C-alpha cells in the first residue's frame, strides 16, 4: 500500500509524463534533475495506493502553475514547490496525510515528488486529469462539482496568497491566473484540499504508476533499438494514428492559450495523406485529409518517430519526422459531464467528441 | 575574391583555393598533432602553383573540430569560476548540475549563486547583490582563476545584471576573461549557462589555437585576415573565436553541405554525402542546412546549439555485401577498402565491387569482379539505390521534386535518376566539399529573445535590427545583409503581446 519509488523509476516517470502531457504541461527534465539530486543525497519518496487513504485523510493537490517558457529560466525548486502546502496547513490549522499531482502530464507529474521530498509525506498514486489540460475547471474534481477553494499560491520571494473563496472553478482559474502573472508567470500552488474519500471516488487513479510504465516501455524499446512508438501502442492499447513529417506550423496566443496548427505529411503507410493537428497548449483535435479523426479528451501524443521522445506544442517544428499516437482518455472525462468540461466544445469547436477507440460516448 | 578554405578534421586537413568563385585547387594532407604544421603544409600545397596569390588573399577560412574534441576528450581545458545571478529563483539546480561528473570536476573552479536577475517582462526579480559580487571577485583572484562565466535569469531579455557583475569582477581582476551568457543568446537558463561555462573553459585553448593558425599563415607568407567557421555555416573573425570558441562546435557537416551548394550553384535541395561507411542525407534551404530540433550534447553537456538535420544510413563505398547479394551492410571495410575490396584483390564483396561490376564506377581492376553473377549484381545495386531513395524521401519536406546533390567518395552509388529528385547533380572537387564550404562562408548575426509591450510587427523589426548589429560586429558588410530566418513564438499565459523572436541574418564579409 506504501512503497518506495526507486531511483531508476525517476527517469521513466519523466519520459512517460512528457508523453501523457499530449504536447503540453512543460518538459519534466528540470524537475527530474531535482529528484535525481535529492535521491543522490539519500532522500527517498514513497508512493501510496489511493485505496490506502482513510476517508477523512487530507490530501494536498499541488501544481506548478505558469508559462512553461518562464520555467526554463526560473528553474523548478523543491523548497519553493513545498511552500504553498505549508501555507495551506497554516490556514486550515490541519495537517496533510499525503500529496498528489493536479496533472500527471508534463512537469507537474514530478511536483508532488518534490513536495514529498521536502515534507516527508507520501505521494498518492493518482491525479485529476490523467494527462495535461490548461485550466483549473478541466479536472475530475471539477467534473464532480467538488468545492474549488481554498487555494494557496507562493512566489519565490516572500509572497504568499490564499484564495479563501471563489464563485466557480472558472473564477478560481481567473483569480489565481492573475496573481500568477503578477509574480512572474510562475507560481507554486496548493489547490483545494481533498479528503481521502474524494480522491478515491473522483481522482484519476494509478496514473503515476502508468507514467512510469509508459516511460519504461519507451526507454526499453529505445535501448533494444526496437520501435519505441510501436512498443507504446502495444503496451497501452493505443492507436498509431499517423506517421509523417511536419510540413507546416503556425502559432498564436489568445486568451492565455498557445493556439496553433501543425500539418503533417504522411510517410510509410500514410503516404499520400495529410494530418492536421490543432493545439490549445495541448493537442486538441486532428483531421485526416480534412475529416475529424480524433478530439480531446483522447490523449493525442506527438512523438519523435525514431527516439519515441514526446514533442511539445512549443517545440514541434518544420521537418520533424513524427508519429502521432492516441492513448485512451480516463473514463471520467468521457461521461457527458466530463465532455462538457474537456470535450471539443469546451475548446470552442462546434463538433462533438470523436474517438479512435470504437464508438464515441 | 581570393580565398583559402581549410577543413582541419580528425584524420585529414583539406584545403582549397578559390578565386572569383572558381576552385583553382583542392588538396588533402594528414592532420598533425600540433595542428600548425598540418595547416602550414596544406597552405603550402594549395598555393604551390600560385605562390604570388599568398600576398593578395582576401581571407583564410578554417573549419575545425579542435574545440569539440577538446571537450569530448577532456583535454586542454582551463578552470572556470561560475557566477549565477537569479536567487531566490533556481536555487536547487546550481551551475554544472547536469554535467558529467568527470568534466565538472575538471572545469569547475568556483561556483557561486547570488541574488538578482529579471522577470520575463524586464522587472528585476530582486536587486543585484553587488556586495556579494565583490566578495566573489576577491575569491576568484585568491584562487588564481583566469576565466569566468556569468549567467543571469532572463539575461537574453536584459543583460544589465551580467554586465554590471562583469564590471565589478574586472575591477578586482583586470585580466580575467569573462563570458556573458547574454552574448550567447537563447532562452533556457541551464543550457545557456552550460554553453557559457563551456566557452569559459576553452579560453586558453582558443587563444593558443587561433595563434597557431595565425602562425601557420604568417609562415606561409599570408597576411589576409583569418576567420573560423561556425556550426550555422557562417564565419567569424579569429579575434571573435578567441572570445567565443563554442561557436565553432561541429561545423563539419554544415561546411560539407554548404560546399555542395556552392559547387553546384543549387541552394534548395537534398544533399547526399556518400562516404565509406555511411551516407549522410541533409536538406538545403536557401543554401543553408535545415537544423535538427533536438537539444545537442557536446561531451555529455546539454547545449542550446542546433546542428544540421542529418539522416545517416548504413550505406557507403565500403559497405559489406553477402555473396548472395541479400545482405547489405551495416558492416563496412571503411578505410581498408584498398586492401579488402575485391577490385583491389581482397576477399570481401563491397558496394564498390558491385558498382564496378555493374559498370557504373571505375575503381581498382574490373576483371577481379567479372565472375560475379549478373542477376545478383543488378539486384544488389537496385536494393542499394532503394535505400538511398527511401532515405531521401524521409528527409524531403516538399511535395514536389527537388534537385539532389551527390557528393563524397562513394557518390557513384547514386543513380542518375532518383524518384522524387528533379535531377541528380554531380560536381568536381566534391571530395573536399568541407573546405569549399569553409572558403565560401558568410557572416551571420542571430538573436533569440522575448519582446514585451511591442506589436508583433514592431518586435520582428526590432529583432532583425539587433541581429544585423551582431552580424556587423562579427565582420559583415551591412549593405549585403539579408534575413534568412524569422520565427516568432507567442508565449502562453504571458500577458500583453509577449512574443519570443528568433531571427538570423547573413551577409558578405566587409572589406577590411
Describe what this molecule looks like in 3D.
With 361 residues, chain A is α+β, with helices and mostly antiparallel strands. Chain A has helices spanning 10-20, 29-40, 68-71, 78-92, 111-119, 140-143, 169-182, 196-202, 207-223, 228-235, 336-342; strands at residues 2-4, 46-48, 58-66, 98-101, 123-124, 126-127, 151-154, 160-163, 186-190, 194-195, 204-205, 239-254, 257-266, 274-280, 282-288, 291-295, 299-304, 321-327. Chain A has a seven-stranded antiparallel β-sheet with strand order 16-15-14-13-12-18-17. In chain A, strands 3, 4, 7, 8, 9 and 10 form a six-stranded mixed β-sheet that branches. In chain A, helix 2 (29-40) runs parallel beside helix 5 (111-119) and helix 9 (207-223) runs antiparallel to helix 10. Chain B is built from 14 helices and 23 strands. Chain B has a nine-stranded mixed β-sheet with strand order 3-2-1-4-9-10-21-23-22, with helices on both faces. In chain B, a hairpin with a 2-residue loop joins strand 14 and strand 15. The two termini of chain B are 13 Å apart. At the A-B interface, helix 2, helix 3, helix 4, helix 7 and strand 12 of A face loops of B.
Amino acid at each position: 500500500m506504501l512503497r518506495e519509488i526507486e531511483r531508476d523509476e525517476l527517469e521513466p516517470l519523466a519520459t512517460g509524463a512528457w508523453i501523457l502531457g499530449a504536447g503540453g504541461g512543460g518538459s519534466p527534465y528540470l524537475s527530474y534533475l531535482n529528484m535525481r539530486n535529492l535521491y543522490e543525497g539519500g532522500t527517498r519518496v514513497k508512493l501510496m495506493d489511493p485505496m490506502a487513504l482513510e476517508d477523512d485523510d487530507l490530501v494536498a493537490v499541488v501544481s506548478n502553475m505558469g508559462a512553461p517558457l518562464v520555467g526554463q529560466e526560473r528553474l523548478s525548486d523543491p523548497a519553493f514547490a513545498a511552500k504553498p502546502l505549508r501555507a495551506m496547513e497554516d490556514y486550515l490549522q490541519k495537517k496533510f496525510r499525503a500529496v498528489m499531482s493536479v496533472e500527471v502530464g508534463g512537469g507537474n507529474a514530478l511536483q508532488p515528488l518534490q513536495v514529498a521530498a521536502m515534507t516527508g509525506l507520501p505521494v498518492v498514486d493518482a491525479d485529476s486529469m490523467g494527462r495535461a489540460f490548461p485550466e483549473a475547471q478541466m479536472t475530475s474534481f471539477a467534473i464532480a462539482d467538488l468545492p474549488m477553494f481554498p487555494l494557496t499560491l507562493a512566489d519565490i520571494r516572500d509572497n504568499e496568497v490564499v484564495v479563501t473563496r471563489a464563485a466557480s472553478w472558472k473564477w478560481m482559474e481567473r483569480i489565481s491566473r492573475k496573481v500568477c502573472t503578477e509574480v512572474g508567470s510562475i507560481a507554486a500552488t496548493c489547490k483545494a484540499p481533498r479528503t481521502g474519500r474524494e480522491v478515491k471516488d473522483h481522482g484519476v487513479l494509478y496514473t503515476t504508476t502508468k507514467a512510469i510504465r509508459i516511460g519504461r516501455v519507451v526507454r526499453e524499446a529505445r535501448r533494444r533499438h526496437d520501435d519505441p512508438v510501436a512498443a507504446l501502442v502495444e503496451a497501452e492499447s493505443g492507436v498509431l494514428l499517423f506517421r509523417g513529417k511536419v510540413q507546416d506550423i503556425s502559432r498564436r496566443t489568445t486568451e492565455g492559450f498557445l493556439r496553433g496548427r501543425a500539418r503533417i505529411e504522411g510517410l510509410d503507410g500514410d503516404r499520400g495523406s495529410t494530418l492536421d493537428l490543432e493545439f490549445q497548449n495541448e493537442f486538441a483535435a486532428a483531421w485526416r485529409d480534412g475529416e475529424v479523426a480524433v478530439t480531446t479528451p483522447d490523449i493525442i501524443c506527438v512523438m519523435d518517430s525514431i527516439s519515441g521522445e514526446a514533442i511539445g506544442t512549443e517545440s514541434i517544428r518544420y521537418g520533424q519526422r513524427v508519429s502521432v499516437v492516441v492513448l485512451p482518455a480516463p473514463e471520467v472525462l468521457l461521461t457527458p459531464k466530463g465532455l462538457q468540461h474537456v470535450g471539443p466544445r469546451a475548446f470552442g469547436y462546434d463538433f462533438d467528441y470523436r474517438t479512435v477507440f470504437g464508438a464515441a460516448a | 575574391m581570393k580565398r583559402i578554405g581549410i577543413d582541419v578534421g580528425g584524420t585529414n586537413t583539406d584545403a582549397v583555393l578559390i578565386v572569383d568563385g572558381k576552385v583553382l585547387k583542392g588538396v588533402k594532407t594528414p592532420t598533425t598533432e600540433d595542428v600548425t604544421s598540418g595547416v602550414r603544409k596544406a597552405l603550402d600545397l594549395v598555393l604551390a602553383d600560385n605562390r604570388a596569390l599568398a600576398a593578395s588573399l582576401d581571407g583564410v577560412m578554417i573549419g575545425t573540430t579542435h574545440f569539440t574534441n577538446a571537450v569530448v576528450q577532456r583535454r586542454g581545458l582551463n578552470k572556470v569560476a561560475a557566477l549565477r545571478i537569479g536567487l531566490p529563483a533556481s536555487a536547487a539546480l546550481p551551475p554544472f548540475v547536469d554535467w558529467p561528473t568527470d568534466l565538472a570536476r575538471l572545469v569547475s573552479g568556483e561556483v557561486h549563486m547570488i541574488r538578482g536577475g529579471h522577470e520575463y517582462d524586464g522587472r528585476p526579480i530582486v536587486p543585484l547583490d553587488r556586495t556579494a559580487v565583490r566578495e566573489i571577485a576577491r575569491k576568484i583572484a585568491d584562487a588564481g582563476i583566469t576565466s569566468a562565466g556569468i549567467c543571469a535569469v532572463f539575461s537574453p531579455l536584459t543583460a544589465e545584471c551580467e554586465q554590471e557583475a562583469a564590471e565589478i569582477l574586472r575591477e578586482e581582476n583586470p585580466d580575467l576573461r569573462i563570458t556573458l551568457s547574454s552574448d550567447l543568446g537563447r532562452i533556457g537558463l541551464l543550457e545557456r549557462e552550460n554553453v557559457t561555462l563551456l566557452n569559459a573553459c576553452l579560453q586558453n585553448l582558443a587563444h593558443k589555437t587561433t595563434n597557431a593558425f595565425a602562425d601557420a599563415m604568417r609562415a606561409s607568407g599570408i597576411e589576409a585576415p583569418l576567420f573560423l567557421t561556425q556550426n550555422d555555416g557562417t564565419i567569424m573573425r579569429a579575434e571573435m573565436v578567441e572570445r567565443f570558441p563554442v561557436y565553432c562546435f561541429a561545423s563539419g557537416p554544415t561546411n560539407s553541405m554548404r560546399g555542395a551548394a556552392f559547387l553546384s550553384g543549387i541552394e534548395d535541395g537534398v544533399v547526399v554525402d556518400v562516404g565509406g561507411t555511411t551516407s549522410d542525407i541533409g536538406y538545403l534551404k536557401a543554401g543553408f542546412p535545415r537544423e535538427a530540433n533536438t537539444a545537442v550534447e557536446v561531451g555529455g553537456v546539454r547545449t542550446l546549439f542546433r546542428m544540421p538535420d542529418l539522416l545517416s544510413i548504413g550505406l557507403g563505398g565500403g559497405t559489406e555485401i553477402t555473396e548472395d547479394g541479400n545482405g547489405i551492410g551495416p558492416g563496412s571495410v571503411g578505410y581498408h577498402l584498398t586492401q579488402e575490396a575485391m577490385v583491389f584483390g581482397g576477399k570481401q564483396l563491397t558496394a564498390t565491387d558491385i558498382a564496378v561490376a555493374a559498370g557504373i564506377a571505375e575503381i581498382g581492376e574490373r576483371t577481379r569482379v567479372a565472375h560475379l553473377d549478373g542477376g545478383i549484381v543488378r539486384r544488389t545495386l537496385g536494393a542499394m539505390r532503394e535505400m538511398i531513395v527511401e532515405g531521401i524521401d524521409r528527409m524531403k519536406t516538399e511535395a514536389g521534386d527537388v534537385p539532389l546533390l551527390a557528393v563524397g567518395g562513394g557518390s557513384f552509388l547514386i543513380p542518375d535518376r532518383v524518384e522524387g529528385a528533379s535531377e541528380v547533380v554531380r560536381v568536381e572537387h566534391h571530395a573536399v566539399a568541407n573546405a569549399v564550404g569553409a572558403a565560401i562562408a558568410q557572416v551571420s548575426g542571430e538573436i533569440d529573445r522575448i519582446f514585451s509591450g511591442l506589436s508583433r510587427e514592431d518586435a520582428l523589426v526590432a529583432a532583425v535590427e539587433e541581429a544585423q548589429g551582431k552580424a556587423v560586429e562579427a565582420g559583415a558588410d551591412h549593405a549585403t545583409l539579408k534575413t534568412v530566418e524569422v520565427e516568432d513564438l507567442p508565449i502562453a499565459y504571458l500577458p500583453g503581446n509577449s512574443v519570443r523572436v528568433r531571427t538570423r541574418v547573413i551577409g558578405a564579409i566587409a572589406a577590411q
